[in-house]
Amino acid sequence: MQTNQRKKILYIMGIDWHWIYQRPQIIAEYLCRDFDVIVAYPVKVWDRNIRKTANQETTIQHLRLWTFPFQRKSKIVGKCSDKYICRALRICYEYDYIYIDYPTYINYIPEDYQGLIIYDCIDDYGQMCSHQYGYQKVISSEKILLERSNIILATSQRLVRKLNKQTSKKIMLVRNAMHFDKLHNIKKAEVKNQYKVGYIGTIARWFDIDLIIESAKKYSLLTYHLIGPCIGFARIECGQISYDGIVEHSELYEYIQDYDCLIMPFIVNEIVRAVDPVKLYEYIAFGKCIVSVYYEELEYFKQYVYFYTTQDEYDSLMENLIQKGFPPKYNMRQQRRFLIENSWEERYKQILEAITLKEETYKEAEG
Predict the structure, then answer these.
(1) What is the Cα–Cα distance from 257 to 199, expressed in whole angstroms?
(2) Which residues partner with 187 through β-bridges?
(3) 121: closest CA among 137, 94, 141?
(4) Do 247 and 255 form a contact (C-beta atoms < 8 A)?
(5) Are strands 116-121 and 151-154 parallel, antiparallel or unpaired?
(6) How far is CA 30 from CA 35, 42, 147, 346, 350, in A?
(7) Torsion sign across C-alpha atoms 81, 82, 88, 89
(8) pLDDT in tens, 30-54
């Protein structure tokens, strides 16, 4: 391994770099401060709208791992795809560290790779699989990845507990965080004749659209604005519900500046229970009144978020907030303290410390 120059990290992501800007891209950018980084990520070969990264490619190298039609349904296509990825990732020998955030990629890393492997467990991946074959592959891959990993990170307490049942290795809790350069003032409560309620994020099967429809029917002075991509989700036509599509991250606050409330109306299932939601950090940064469904992992946010568990509780809560003009649950001092303690800067310090400590341990063993 190299000693007199910057160490090199191969970061293998489970999402396309150009998908919604989130934890993998943010961590890769922070790693560039101290390491030479190349990111490898899946891209659909039929995607003709591949965008060039303007500034990141000057500091982060990009390796696109093309995915092919029917590779999960056809054994022949699947084997060809596996051979292609194995060949593409043979560059791993050139890197001191491999950072992986999706389990199946461990199958493409040669057994004789001598560097350190870092596993960042972001979701309960098995629960996200829609068919048995995919589930079994993810579960078996995660078992191998845990055995081979030198550093294991997890984004939530639930994931820590889950991984602790599978390995005796230390699992390090590294929650998500807030990545805005600017904190916004707390919105003052204001009783009005009409209120804007917003949701920012992916709209998929875990989004509780029925809750929103019932609320819109009951309270005509509420209009709901859904910002983000729809995935496998049939849009419901309702005059009080607006599907606003994807908004650039840098333009989000300007877009929602006059919103009275931001919500996280998820259907609580095994996937959701393991999530440390980035959007709640962002909502707090925006200084808005925040309403969310409750599950255990969200105890972390209890001083900042109004919770509900049922439709009746949601309706009752919204009625109360309407009468008060949607006051945020927190003040500016609380907001500032929370976001300083939960910045990506602080999360990166945790990760860098873990890497440095493991490197020192290896040096002592070699010495």
Answers:
(1) 13
(2) none
(3) 141
(4) yes
(5) parallel
(6) 9, 21, 26, 11, 12
(7) positive
(8) 999 999 999 999 998 776 555 544 4
Residues 157-208: pLDDT tens digits? 999 999 999 999 999 999 999 877 678 999 999 999 999 999 999 898 899 9
Q: Please tell me whether the overall predicted TM-score, pTM, comes out greater than 0.85 for this model.
A: yes
Q: 142 and 166 in contact (C-beta within 8 Å)?
A: yes
Are 63 and 88 in contact, with CB atoms under 8 Å apart? yes
Q: Which domains does the chain have, with CATH numbers?
A: 8-177+343-366 (3.40.50.2000), 195-341 (3.40.50.2000)
Whole-angstrom distance, CA of residue 347 vs CA of residue 176: 8
Instruction: Judge whether residue 267 has pLDDT over 90.
Output: yes
Residue whose C-alpha is closest to residue 261's, from 156, 187, 174? 187
Q: Phi/psi of residue 362, each to 5°?
A: -65, -40
CB 329 within 8 A of CB 343: no
Exposed/middle/buried for 109, CB within 10 Å: 0-12, 13-18, 19+?
Answer: buried
Residue 135 half-sphere exposure, CB side, CA atoms within 13 Å?
Answer: 7
Token reading at 216: 């819109």
